[in-house]
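I am writing to request your help with a piece of structural work I have in hand. I am sending you one protein, given as its amino acid sequence and as whole-number tokens for its backbone shapes. Kindly check, if you would, that the fold set down in the tokens agrees with what the sequence suggests. You will find the record immediately after this paragraph:
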Amino acid sequence: MRFTSTRAALATLALSAGIAAPAAAGDVTVTVEGLRNGAGLIRAAVCPPETFTKPGCPYVGAARASGGRVTVTGVPDGVYAVQVFHDEDADGALDRNGFWPTEGLGFSNDAPMRMGPPRFRDAAVRVTGGGSIRLNVRYFP
């Protein structure tokens, strides 16, 4: 309770001083459906537009694929796109055969891949105080 009171006081002080208060942060639980097996890891990222489908997404998490769920911690309120991949060999990289990924991929809003990764606006979701999302993983030939 003391933390809440201190936080409210700091927010009030910041607003009265013309400084923006820091956004609340929460945990985002990603449930993954459509995994072809329980091998390896699920890697999830909750990304702002500038890092969606690129390296450097600031909010990431990983968990055993057999559990079908991963939690990404400390995500501030905002608009993000969620992406996951089924890292079947747990090597930390999305394996490919030429252009096509050989490990499963999924995006929030089931955003489609058309000759490349989906657009941020197609995958965008609002995160407020954390929450949960379900994603479908797709595998390509």
